[in-house]
Amino acid sequence: MERHHALAHECGIGRALSDVDCIYVAASAHDARFARICVASIRYFYPDLPIRLLAGGDLQSGLIEELRSAWNVQQAAVPHGDYGWGFVKLEPLFLSPGHRFVVLDADTVITGPILDLMKDSDASFIVDDETQSQEDTVRLYYNWNGLRAIDREARSPLFVFNSGQWLGSAGILTRDDFSPWIRWDMPRSLRYPEHFMGGEQGVLNYVLNQKHASSGLRVERRRLLRWPGHGMDGLSAERVIDRTAPALVVHWAGMKRNRLQDMVGADLLQFFESYHYQRVYAGSIRRLVALCRHFVTQWRRAIGVHIVLSYRRMVRDPLLKLRRVL
């Protein structure tokens, strides 16, 4: 693997950085393992491009220091706090005008120099070229028919995209563009959760669609995403190593498991995890410690979710029975 890292430098892979200034990786305390893997995949192709972690809340202790030491990764300069589900990914939009960036979720890896897919575009935003049925658009993004009661300009979306991978430009959209739909206090929350998918994804899709339709905002669709739920189509770690893999973002949205080997495309995850720990001092030991912390974190999170759901059932079921009686 060290040979492949040297080869990447010798060949200058990822040196043509287009006009992208930074890649932001959205991370939280429970996905530290995936954040390490994601960062390692970026560094495999882009040794020098600035990478910033977007912390949606508290991060695993020591994660920033480890990534800074191994890969020169910094934490994004956004206010500290609990952003809620995904809302921190909007923050780069409000930085200095002209700042061009890519946003990735932590549970992604790149399989090639993805900026090559974007460098010949002058669009303000580039998103995945996704096709969804009307029913899935409402389920995954937003209900535009319902929004018409609030916004008379609401219309059927011309495009939809998963917000785990997109290119954006700062200084074009403002918080005011999102304020009718988002409460900006911490944690962030939706004003109309009955019409938007939870988190920022639905609102971001809505605002970009509305701006595209009303003012001609340049939003370009390109094939960026490979979702393992639809199969890997031959995409593998071996092809990444041989430089024959297409440049895509593999995103395990809704498909994460506690053990990497139980996931579709596990060889990619394991390859980039090994690549990461080659750069970490006492990597074998720290990998074992990190693995234990990962399982403990996931175990605690699962228990927490179970408790919350059980409590909601305890409160909801008696109310339902009371309503039936009344």
Task: Tag the structure with descriptive keywords.
about 325 residues, alpha/beta, Spore Coat Polysaccharide Biosynthesis Protein SpsA, Chain A, 2 domains, five-stranded mixed sheet, three-stranded mixed sheet, 10 helices, disordered N terminus
Summarize the structure.
Helix 2 packs across helix 9. The chain contains 10 helices and 12 strands.
What does this 3D model show about the protein?
This protein has 326 residues and is an alpha/beta fold. The protein folds into 2 domains: 2-281, Spore Coat Polysaccharide Biosynthesis Protein SpsA, Chain A, CATH 3.90.550; 291-326. Helices cover 38% and strands 13% of the residues. It has helices at residues 2-11, 32-45, 63-71, 134-140, 144-147, 175-178, 201-215, 237-241, 266-278, 283-325, and strands at 22-27, 51-55, 74-75, 100-105, 108-110, 125-128, 165-169, 182-183, 189-190, 219-222, 225-226, 249-251. Helix 3 links the parallel strand 2 and strand 3 (74-75). The longest helix has 43 residues, at 283-325. The protein is globular and about 60 Å long. Mean pLDDT is 89; it is low at 1-17.
| Contiguous uncertain segments of 5+ residues | 1-17
| Average predicted local confidence, pLDDT | 89
- Helicity range of the residues? 25-40%
Name the helix and strand elements from N-terminus to C-terminus, one letter apiece: HEHEHEEEEHHEHEEHEEHEHH
Which fold name corresponds to the CATH topology of the largest domain? Answer: Spore Coat Polysaccharide Biosynthesis Protein SpsA, Chain A
Tell the overall outline. globular
Amino-to-carboxy terminus distance: 68 Å
Q: What is the structural class?
A: alpha/beta
Strands ordered across the widest β-sheet: 3-2-1-4-7
Q: What is the CATH architecture annotation of the largest domain?
A: Alpha-Beta Complex
- Percent in strands: 5-15%
Q: Could you tell me the radius of gyration in angstroms?
A: 21 Å
Q: How many domains, in number, for the residues?
A: 2
Write down the CATH class of the largest domain. Alpha Beta
